[in-house]
Structure formats: C-alpha cells, structure tokens
Amino acid sequence: MLSKKTKYGIKALTYLAKKEQRDPIPIAEISKSENISLKFLESILLTLRKNELLGSKKGKGGGYYLLKEPSEIQMTVVMRILEGPISMVPCVSLNFYKKCADCPDETKCAVHNLMTELRDSSLEIFRNTTLADLCNC
Q1: Is residue 133 exposed (0-12), middle (13-18) or buried (19+ Cβ within 10 Å)?
Q2: Where do the structural domains in the chain lie, given as residue ranges?
Q3: Which of 71, 93, 102, 137 could be a cystine partner for 85, CB 3.0 to 4.6 Å?
Q4: CA distance 131 to 136
Q5: Fold of domain 4-66
Q6: Alpha carbons 86 and 126: distance in angstroms, whole number
Q7: 8, 87, 100, 107, 121 from 118: Cα distances, Å
Q8: Measured distance CA(43)–CA(53) in Å, rounded
C-alpha cells in the first residue's frame, strides 16, 4: 500500500511541476491547494530537498521549486526516496535485498517468484513514468 507520505509527496511535486514558472512556491500554498497538513508537508519537502529533487529559498518570495525538469524526474526515484524499497518483500528488492529467514531456496519459493514478477511489473511502470507524465506538462 502506498503511504500517505509518498502520496502527498507526489501530489506536491505534481503541483510544482504544473507551474509554468520555476519560481519558489510557498509551502502554505501547496498545503492549501493539495489539502495536506502543513507540518507533514514540511517534512516531506525537506526529504525531497535533501535528496536533490527540490530547491528552496527562505524569506520573502521563498518556497520550494523543482531542481530538474519534470520530464527528468522518474517515479522510481521518487518512490525510493519517499517509500523505500519498491518490492513488497526484501528477498526480491534490487536496492534493499535481504534474504528471508524462513526460505531455504529462493528459486523454488512461490512467494519469491510471484513477488519478482510483481516487482518487475511495478518497476516497468515507475521507470517509464515521469513527473511530466503525471501532470501532462
């Protein structure tokens, strides 16, 4: 299940991407427009800034802005920053792999094989979807 953090992060990024000008947008504007708690949004945008998807400017005329073009921001990047592993179980994760303690042979595990297919399908969608695709910009 998608966490609220990731859902709100995508909504905030989409809001910023839809702006024709790349000027800083006040966090209060994003919060109000997207119906996201200001405190929660601050945490999300800070995470995105620390991971170099957003820039910020303090003071009058300040706010957050995209550091890259929306067409350059893949959903795999956003998902991994905000959600962590894309796979549902650690034994099929590409970036966060961890062997399951209860599984003697991953190649014969029905759950492993199913989750590998699911991961691959999800990755295909996330890799081929950019922020620009989500907001048609």
Answers
A1: middle
A2: 4-66, 73-135
A3: 93
A4: 8
A5: Arc Repressor Mutant, subunit A (1.10.10)
A6: 9
A7: 24, 8, 17, 16, 5
A8: 14
* Model confidence, pTM: 0.88
Q: Where are the beta strands (DSSP E) in the chain?
A: 54-57, 63-66
Q: pLDDT tens track of the chain, all 137 residues? A: 789 999 999 999 999 999 988 899 999 999 999 999 999 999 999 999 999 999 999 988 899 999 999 999 999 999 999 998 888 888 999 888 999 888 888 888 999 999 999 999 999 999 999 999 998 86
Residue with tokens 């800034």: 49
Amino acid at 122: S
